[in-house]
């Protein structure tokens, strides 16, 4: 039996000023006042329940009623010599409510965690900050609850407001852990699905209710609270993950289907699909078309659907509009099991301005750069991260690791890299200040990108990072140890702009713009490139890709098919935004689904079938991808035939048959076209975008051509072929 307390035991005294500080929410260590404290051979317990009418402590010894001491603080002495297990029975003018006491538990963060956070080097930051369900085995049974931890170094106080305290944060003040800036509290009985926010008292004396920056789940907009989430998902993609770790993405096939999940398909009532629905239909659709990867526009929680996910409020929470985080795990898992990789759009350059989110989180510019010349993005109306602060860089690169490790993402496409690299991006003279060397480069952002890439590639074998970078910044895909930024790939925005500008011309004028199509090969091997026809090219008045093409309807469709054939053969990986594969006529709008009814029309089914055949032939032809970043993998056969708007080149890889691409962007066929070829023999026509099955005119070469001896255009052999109008034809050497 536990010894009884001495008869003279009195509550451990606490100064009234300290109690006032506790009640105001300004006590940095409420556990020093609340909870159990040995005193005079007994145990003093203090409880903060501002609205309670009575509080009783219950344990093996029986029950001990507490006395109201000061403005919601209750105190009493337990008749035991050592701190026991106990519970609270609290009445609010009604039936008593039983609960555990948060202030009898030790911190859930260790000294090493706090040290790494201080240093900005905690690579698994999400495992210690945020909300985490814990289950403790004790002599009196299992204690389950949630640990809450948040970084708010300038806060004078932080409270947890949640379902479990009727959103009255006064009952749950958090403690500050040393000089780390981290505030922590373990709340027993709080579990999966609990909605919560942090009430943060800034240095200006103002309380601000904030969503958790590290929340794993969020409420569905327009609600703004964070939610506790305990994953129960069991992955089934071990085979994929093992194989991925052994691959070099730059030497592998990669054709990417870019998807905005909210508008790919909708329910009949126009509501959004769930993760589970996507895991069935989207997976089957992508597999049927033969894409090797999907790229998902941001799935991180964002309040405004019209931002397409690029104004993020919860960087660690998958979008609650589609369901819970395990639903997203299911989608990724199903894609992997079907042999499809997953690339996520990631936005570390700027963040949403909503007052309940990251902005002025602890009452100061915490995540955003305090210098308005660096901390405010004029073009997008958003805050820019403070890349010069190590804890902010840690938050971001840990977030990159999080999506790769926790959700098995195979890659991150980093949005707006150019806006991060240049201090004068979207700024007029006088609106920016040069760096310490007098240049316009954002040295802190460069440091962050290098740190992020190096860490991600070290921790997650087989993953890739892709830069949306639109300038001539050198070494975007050069390793960081060689002073590069360290990305795996870079979007080739120059190729995209030049090729679309060429195609916008009527065929009779294209000969004057021939160089716009050949210029990309001047620099094609300077970086590891992705050829992007993304959402940005089919929105905001730009029209659909189909409607960019000149001519009548037949010519527009033929131009589109020819362009896709040219794109798939050009050095670099391919990315195609959803809808292009069905010949979408209307401009993309995030509020409605794609025009799937177009597939009822043969000419649109033809585009769809072509994309399927492109992907399958591409995947089977290593010559098209094994040497994407090497000049040895490409050779012009004739890049100067401007008069006939025709381009011909060969793609090759060691031990593989050569593949020749001939693209005719004129509106007339070229019969008897003498094509230079690298070898004699039979060359199979493996793809023809003018085939009748695609609703083309059917001009072709009856399945193959024969190359004969005879030098032509620097090659040892040639064949006289028929090149269809507005079409691309692929020939592969017969092995």
TrEMBL record:
Pfam families: Alpha-amylase, Alpha-amylase_C, CBM_48, GlgB_N. CDD domains: AmyAc_Glg_BE (cd11322), E_set_GBE_prok_N (cd02855). InterPro entries: A-amylase/branching_C, Branching_enzy, GH, GH13_cat_dom, GlgB, GlgB_N, GlgB_N_E_set_prok, Glyco_hydro_13_N. Keywords: Carbohydrate metabolism, Glycogen biosynthesis, Glycogen metabolism, Glycosyltransferase, Transferase. It catalyses: Transfers a segment of a (1->4)-alpha-D-glucan chain to a primary hydroxy group in a similar glucan chain. GO terms for molecular function: 1,4-alpha-glucan branching enzyme activity. Pathway: Glycan biosynthesis; glycogen biosynthesis. Gene3D superfamilies: Glycosidases, Golgi alpha-mannosidase II, Immunoglobulins. Its EC number is 2.4.1.18. Residues 258-616 form the Glycosyl hydrolase family 13 catalytic domain. Coiled coil: none annotated. The active site is at residues 415, 468. Monomer. Catalyzes the formation of the alpha-1,6-glucosidic linkages in glycogen by scission of a 1,4-alpha-linked oligosaccharide from growing alpha-1,4-glucan chains and the subsequent attachment of the oligosaccharide to the alpha-1,6 position. Belongs to the glycosyl hydrolase 13 family. GlgB subfamily. This is 1,4-alpha-glucan branching enzyme GlgB. It comes from Nocardioides cremeus. The lineage of its organism: Bacteria, Bacillati, Actinomycetota, Actinomycetes, Propionibacteriales. The gene is glgB.
């Amino acid at each position: 039996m536990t010894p009884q307390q001495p008869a003279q035991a009195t509550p451990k005294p606490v100064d009234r000023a300290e109690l006032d500080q506790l009640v105001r929410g300004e006590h940095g260590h409420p556990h020093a006042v609340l909870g159990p404290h040995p005193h005079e051979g007994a145990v003093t317990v203090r409880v903060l329940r501002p609205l309670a009418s009575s509080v009783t402590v219950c344990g093996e010894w029986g029950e001990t009623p507490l006395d109201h001491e000061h403005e919601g603080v209750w105190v009493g002495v337990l008749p035991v010599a050592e701190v026991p297990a106990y519970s609270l029975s609290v009445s609010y003018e009604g039936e008593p409510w039983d609960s555990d006491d948060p202030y009898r538990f030790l911190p859930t963060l260790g000294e090493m965690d706090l040290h790494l956070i201080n240093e900005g080097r905690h690579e698994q930051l999400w495992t210690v900050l945020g909300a985490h369900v814990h289950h403790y085995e004790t002599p009196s049974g299992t204690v389950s609850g949630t640990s809450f931890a948040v970084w708010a170094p300038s806060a004078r106080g932080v409270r947890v407001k949640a379902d479990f305290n009727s959103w009255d944060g006064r009952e749950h003040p958090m403690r500050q852990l040393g000089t780390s800036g981290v505030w922590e509290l373990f709340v027993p009985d709080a579990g999966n699905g609990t909605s919560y926010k942090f009430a943060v008292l800034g240095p200006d004396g103002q309380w601000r209710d904030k969503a958790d920056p590290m929340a794993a789940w969020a409420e569905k907009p327009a609600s703004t609270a964070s939610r506790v989430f305990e994953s129960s998902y069991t992955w089934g993609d071990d085979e994929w993950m093992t194989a991925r770790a052994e691959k070099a993405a730059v030497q592998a096939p990669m054709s990417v289907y870019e998807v905005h999940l909210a508008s790919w398909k909708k329910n009949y009532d126009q509501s959004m699909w769930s993760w589970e629905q996507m895991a069935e239909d989207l997976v089957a659709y992508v597999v049927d078309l033969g894409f090797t990867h999907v790229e998902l526009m941001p799935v991180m929680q964002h309040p405004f659907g019209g931002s397409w996910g690029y104004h993020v409020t919860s960087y660690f929470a998958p979008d609650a509009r589609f369901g819970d985080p395990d639903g997203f795990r299911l989608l990724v898992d199903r894609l992997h099991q079907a042999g499809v990789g997953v690339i996520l759009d990631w936005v570390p350059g700027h963040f949403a301005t909503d007052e309940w989110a990251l902005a002025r989180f602890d009452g100061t510019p915490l995540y955003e750069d305090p210098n308005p010349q660096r901390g405010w993005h004029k073009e997008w109306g958003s805050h820019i991260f403070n890349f010069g602060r190590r804890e902010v860089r840690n938050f971001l690169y840990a977030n990159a690791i999080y999506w790769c490790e926790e959700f098995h993402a195979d890659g991150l496409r980093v949005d707006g890299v150019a806006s991060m690299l240049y201090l004068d991006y979207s700024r007029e003279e006088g609106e920016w200040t040069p760096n310490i060397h007098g240049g316009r480069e954002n040295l802190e952002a460069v440091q962050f990108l290098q740190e992020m890439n190096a860490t991600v590639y070290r921790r997650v074998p087989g993953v890739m990072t892709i830069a949306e970078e639109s300038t001539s910044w050198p070494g975007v895909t050069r390793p960081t140890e060689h002073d590069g930024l360290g990305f795996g790939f870079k979007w080739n925005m120059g190729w995209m702009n030049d090729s679309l500008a060429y195609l916008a011309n009527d065929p009779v004028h294209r000969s004057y713009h021939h160089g716009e199509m050949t210029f990309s090969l001047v620099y094609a091997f300077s970086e590891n490139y992705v050829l992007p026809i993304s959402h940005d090219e089919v929105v905001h008045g730009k029209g659909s890709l189909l409607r960019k093409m000149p001519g009548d309807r037949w010519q527009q469709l033929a131009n589109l098919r020819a362009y896709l054939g040219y794109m798939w053969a050009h050095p670099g990986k391919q990315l195609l935004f959803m809808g292009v594969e069905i010949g979408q006529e209307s401009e993309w709008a995030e509020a409605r689904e794609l025009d799937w009814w177009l597939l009822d029309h043969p000419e649109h089914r033809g585009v769809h079938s072509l994309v399927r055949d492109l992907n399958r032939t591409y995947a089977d032809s290593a010559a098209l991808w094994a040497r994407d970043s090497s000049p040895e993998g490409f050779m012009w056969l004739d890049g100067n035939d401007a008069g006939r708007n025709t381009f011909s080149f060969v793609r090759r890889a060691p031990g593989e048959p050569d593949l020749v691409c001939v693209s005719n962007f004129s509106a007339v066929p070229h019969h008897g076209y003498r094509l230079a070829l690298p070898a004699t023999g039979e060359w199979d026509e493996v793809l023809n975008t003018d085939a009748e099955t695609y609703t083309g005119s059917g001009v072709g070469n009856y399945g193959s051509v024969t190359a004969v001896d005879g030098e032509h255009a620097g090659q040892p052999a040639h064949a006289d072929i028929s090149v269809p109008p507005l079409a691309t034809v692929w020939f592969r050497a017969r092995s």
